[in-house]
Amino acid sequence: MEKLFSFVLGLVLGSFANVCIYRLPKGRSIVSPGSQCPACGHSIPWYDNIPLLSWLLLKGRCRFCHGEISWRYFLVELLTGILFLGLYLKCGFSWQFAALGVFVLSLVIVSFIDLDTFFIPDVIVLPGILLGLVGAVLIPGYFSEMDRLSRALYSLTGLFSGGGLLWLIAIFGRLAYKKDAMGGGDVKLLAMIGAYLGWKSVLITLFFAALLGSIISLVLIALKVKKMDDYIPFGPYLALGAVVALAWKGYTFYGFLIP
Ligand SMILES: [Zn+2]
Fold first, then answer.
1. Rg (CA), the chain
2. pTM recorded for the entire structure
């Protein structure tokens, strides 16, 4: 029952993530008005706004204008549901679940905004850096057995190693290629990931982000979805890497405990 509840909670928050992904880049309020059809702007009644089900029942179309409602709305809800279920299986309903829930929700929102606009909004990642740090300090057991001071240091070193590593890569990238390969948004995003997960997870995140980023980009180029010199946003890969690191949390990696 609790598993179902965590999944449904993720679906509802995924529905909220969709609103943020659509409205934040346009500078519009995420609170009011209520949900609207992206095609005709008609407000969507609650019974057409049930995560997953409404999209399926209406076959991805608006009840009023029959305009298409992208499958991405469905995907974002399902993805967030699965992430919250995974988080529940990992840490049960706890303060850690609450903190990491906010974290994965930010990852989802930031990834899809980056895919759409090549931009990572400060309004998500800057408060995220602070929340990660505060959560790590206040929640006992957040980094396994560490005491409060060690948790604060582990989160801070995560913040600065995450931000610092990408900042260096960005500087060298600019010198080597004479253009921006890495945006300031990516730097702040990895700083946020570091604040929430600590410095060891920053290394895991960066490794898997680069690996998955290269593999997926090559596949997209082979399938001719992307061209060789197309700009490929790195934020979604950092988010994927962070989910791998999150799954690893609490386990050892070559005898190296990931707190
Ligand atoms: Zn419509």
1. 19
2. 0.95
Domain limits, the chain: 1-90, 94-259
CA distances from 66 to 2, 15, 52, 91 (A): 36, 20, 18, 42
d(Cα 178, Cα 165) in Å, to the nearest integer?
19
CA dihedral of residues 222, 228, 231, 233 (deg, nearest 10)? 40
CA 114 – ligand 1 centroid, Å:
25
- Tens of pLDDT, residue by residue over 222-248, are 998 888 888 889 999 999 999 999 999
CA of 18 to the centre of ligand 1 (A): 16
What token pair was written down for 201?
């997870």
The helix (H) or strand (E) run that includes residue 253 is strand 252-253
CA separation for the pair 7, 18 (Å, rounded): 16
Going from the Cα of 36 to the center of ligand 1, the distance in angstroms, rounded, reads: 8
- CA 185/CA 168 separation, integer angstroms: 14
pLDDT tens digits, 108-164:
999 999 999 999 999 999 999 999 999 999 999 999 889 999 999 999 999 999 999
Contact 69, 83 (CB under 8 A): no
Distance 44 CA to ligand 1 centre (A): 8
Ligand 1 mean position, distance from CA 223 (Å): 33
Please report the DSSP string for 215-231 in residue order: HHHHHHHHTTSS-TTS-
Q: How far is the CA of 53 from the centre of ligand 1 (A)?
A: 17
Tokens 């995924």 map to which residue? 14
Q: How far is the CA of 66 from the centre of ligand 1 (A)?
A: 6
